[in-house]
Amino acid sequence: MIGMLFDGMTQVIKEVFYALLPLLVIFMLFQYFVLKLPKKEVLRAFWGIVFVFFGFVLFLQGVNVGYLSTGEYLGSSLASLKNNWLLVPIGFVFGFTIAFAEPAVRILNLEVEKVSGGHIKQNIVLYSLSIGVAVSVALSMLRILTGISLWYFIIPGYLIAFVLSKFVSPVFVGIAFDSGGVVTGPMIVTLLLSLTVGASNALENRNPLTEGFGMVALVSMIPIISILTLGFLYERKVDTR
Predict the structure, then answer these.
(1) Which one has a higher pLDDT value, 7 or 105?
(2) What is the pLDDT at residue 82?
(3) Residues 192-226: tens digit of each pLDDT
(4) What are the angstrom distances between the C-alpha of 226 and each of 60, 173, 216?
(5) Other CB atoms within 10 A of residue 7 CB
(6) What digits encode the pLDDT tens for the residues 100-158?
(7) Which stretches of the chain are DSSP H helices?
(8) What are the Cα distances from residue 139, in Å, to 10, 52, 115, 196, 211?
(9) Which residue in 61, 143, 177, 208 could disulfide with 200, CB within 3.0 to 4.6 Å?
């Protein structure tokens, strides 16, 4: 049983090593020709890369061994229920909690509050993004259950985003479109994508290639709208003062 936890770990180690090697080489070149950092700082950077290496290895191994299979099993089990409409509210809860715990989202929120001088509170952005991801996952589950084409979500969604951009300050436009990329982090994609693929596999007359995928597109789009809406509310709050 314990041996299964290490299946394929050698391949994961190789992949992470080859992914981080160019970063290490570029840093060393910059250090030699441009940065000239003290030895203490170079050692700190080196140990940081070492920690990143082991962190990626452990995370990706966990994804391969348990995370993906768990997501598919949950999706297929929920879709097999008599009341499979429960996929929608459960997807909402999953989306909210996973986005709330996503490290990349936390970093974005911290940077937004720091750069804005505390004007834009990180908790407000965190809840806005988490709700946006929750809505997008719920819509993905609804799309799987009903077979609605992805185009009916994507085209109106981006039209709404572009219209809102006209009424929001450039600060919130930048934050919003960065948020669309940040929320599609490792925790959200690995579990929720496998969840939707598992659900579409369990339902009759559903093709996982057309219904199972597309969730990431919604997850990257809806948070953009939620942050732009937050920016619109901020603008109105300032105007009424």
Answers:
(1) 105
(2) 87
(3) 889 998 999 888 888 888 888 888 899 999 999 99
(4) 30, 11, 16
(5) 12
(6) 988 889 889 999 998 888 888 899 999 999 999 999 999 999 999 998 989 999 999 99
(7) 9-30, 39-62, 68-79, 87-101, 103-115, 122-146, 151-165, 170-182, 186-202, 215-239
(8) 38, 34, 33, 11, 12
(9) 208
DSSP state of 1: -
Full-model pTM: 0.82
The first and second tokens of residue 141, run together, are 């589950």
Residue type, 163: V
Would you state the structure tokens that stand for residue 123, as one six-digit string? 């908790």
Tokens (6 digits) for 145 = 């259950």
Which has the closest alpha carbon to 225: 94, 89, 133? Answer: 133
Q: Tell me the C-alpha distance between 62 and 112, whole Å.
A: 31
For residues 57 and 12, the answer to whether their CB atoms sit within 8 Å is yes
Residue 240 pLDDT > 80, yes or no?
no
Tokens of 213: 């995928």
User: Terminal CA-to-CA distance of the chain, rounded, Å?
Assistant: 63
